[in-house]
Design brief:
With 893 residues, the protein is α+β, with helices and mostly antiparallel strands. The chain contains 29 helices and 32 strands. Helices cover 49% and strands 23% of the residues.
Amino acid sequence: MVGLGIVVFADYREERQRLLNDNMQRARALGHAIDGHILRAQSLVHSFAIADEILSGDVKNFSKRASRAIAGAGLRGHIFVYRFENGRPLLYSSKDDRFVAESIDSAAARLVFERGTSVISDLTIDPDSGHAFVNAHVPVILHGKVTYSAAIAIPTTELTAELLAQSLPSGWLVGLTDRKGIIAGRSRDSDKHVGRPASPQLRAAVLKSDVGTLETITREGIANLTAFSRSPRTGYTTSIGVPQAELIGPLQMKLASLIGTFALVFGLALLLARYMSKRISNSVQALIKPAIALGQGTPIAFDRLHLAEANEVAAAIGRAAELLTQRDRALRAQQEALQQFHFFTENANDILLVLEEAGQIRYANRMASRRLGYGNAELLGMEIFQIDKAATPKLFGRLFEYSRSTQITPFEREYTCNDGSVFPVEINATVLEHSGEWLMYVAPRDISERVQAEQAVRWAATHDAMTGLANRACLRECLLTLLSAEHCILDSGALLYIDLDRFKPVNDVYGHEVGDRVLLEVSQRIQALMRQTDLLARVGGDEFIALLGYRDDGGRHAVDTARSLIDAVSAPIKFGNIEVKLSASIGISRFPEHGDSADVLIHAADLAMLQAKHDGRNGYSFYAPEMDKQAQFAIQVERRLQQALEHGALALHFQPIVNLASGAVDGVEALVRLEDGIEPPLGPAAFIPVAEMCGLIAPLGEWVSLEACRQQGRWRDAGVHLQVSVNVSALQFQRADFMPQIRKLIAVSGINPHWLVVELTETAVMENMAEAVQILSELKKIGIRIALDDFGTGYSSLSVLSNLPIDKLKIDQSFVRRIDTDHASRAVIDAVIALANSLELELVAEGIETESALQYLRERGCQLGQGYYFSRPLPQLALGEWVKKRNAQVADD
């Protein structure tokens, strides 16, 4: 009886612990459901906290739109908005259409303003209606500062409905309390108890631990065994109470049943013992009687029945002894095998589980306990569905039945640990029959490292390794998603194609390591200007694309963003003693007006960026349909130029440079023409920009320089001595092989370097001042003369000219042509002439077209000039004749 009592009590304790463990899991799952309801509502409000209405201060329309969206999402609750004025809380009232003084739930709103993060309030009671709510607040941030607190008031009736949806036994009690221990939901008499404090025992236990069990007395006076779990995300606590009577009742019934069974078995055992003892006694007497008779000398009488029974007893005892010996050997073998199995499974590096057909865990090894965070006893009281959240009894039953006849292939799932964290596993499962029972042997292998590696590969495929920004593929995918009808949630948006100006010299001068650091700094500056809903991608070496989504505003937001980006990029970048100054050219395409596909929009933004560069860089330009025509023209010019270089269809014209004092020809400037038989013939202004963009400027410049030097040699042989000026583009000048090409040019053409003038623009020289001075000095050492072309249109200061080893300044024709009409142009010319004289530089005026312009320049001491007043650019033969006539005329004068 004592043993039975111990068995019954142990069974009661085991049942009680199992129930507590199950209820603790149910409480945690219930808490997740409550969290999901509250956080889903909060997330919906957060998605509207960046809407144009609230960002522009239109709280009324914001509240209406948000309320409609909440109702459409199947949620109940109303929207309200807080702001603070002089420390006082003001609440927007839809009834008055304005903010009014209000203190309801102002503490939670104040936390939003202090922290700048979302806040879930404690239980709030509306003093007018008496209704209870849980409020989910989110911050509305304008210009980096919290301006409003937008919130949704969730009725506690909604949360009570979540509690009632658990379908627990009718006698059980499910409750929800806030951080202060106030009842926010109850499965029984909710209307009566919501807003009142929970039991003191429960409140004290929650203050000590996030999860636990305890004995409580409900407000109805019922003794309960309660399990609770507090959510770390919302702070609300869910509890499940089971009446202790439901545990003690089954215990009493089981005890009575065991006592009756014991009495019956005990009576039968007494009867059997009496019968067996009589038979054994008779057998013993049958063995004793012959011995007594033999001792007394009396005749021996054998009782066959007794001897036979004694023999049977002895034989039965012998057989039992043999069977016990065999069974002992078998048990020892099984025990050894079990010990080996237990040793290997317990020390395995992977999780090992044995599951029953209904999903209960029959066995779990040490690694399972360690990895999942449960004790072994806890695991043996759980079902696989508590670990594999994606599994359901129905699906598991179908898998179990299928696996009886077929070996299933490995599959992947996620296991949930005791602390709520998850990790991916690859599961190998086999169903086998053992002792008439079907069991599933499961070997889940942790594949976290493999999944992380796969995620890293996917990340690398869609992101730029250096900056961490999205790449072109990721941008295109996001743009396609945004433009698709089922995902489109915005009226319009824009692409900003950002190209850094003058970045190549950074790599050339300081090396690619510094260049990478500059790119990283620029990307961080641009990213800092992006909103959470925007996307920034790096699509080339120094090219970025920003994807902006917004409500239609006529492109105002795109313009504001472009200006901010230009300012951010223009700020100096410093690394130790290195200071880099860049600028950005930005092209903007808008959708849907400029296209409805990713490729079209990117192409349009690229064309607009090229237009911004053409307009002088460090600015932005919107896409226009005319740019496609310009692009087609550029493609045609590129094709013509490529063929002309290959088949010799280029021609050189020369414009005379005249000494203004004597009228004699001092030299010529070589100007290339594209005369390939295709109309119209093109001058350098039309195809030089195309050559620079498509990478043909280097071979074109080499051809022009070589042909000009060879022609100078022909004139020299004919007795005409002229300096030849050739234009060198900024891209040519910045190439690492520029000086080797110049030396090769002189060697191949045979020209005297003193008769060669290299013309460079201000932009080419000022791009990298230190390197430019070094190259110009090398040119001077060879004997080549250097002219600074288009002076006055660049961004150089006059003071830096004294550091440049140059021989000539060429006044840009835009100033010369306005001499007669523009006072400012004359002032610039006077300043440049004075500067050239002070630096002892020759001055060449371009664009002289009138007698008055010639007279003005001559009177002020300008030495040289060129323009239509003297002659248009002429072919080489015609120029030779013109020079002879000109020199003859000068000699006659």
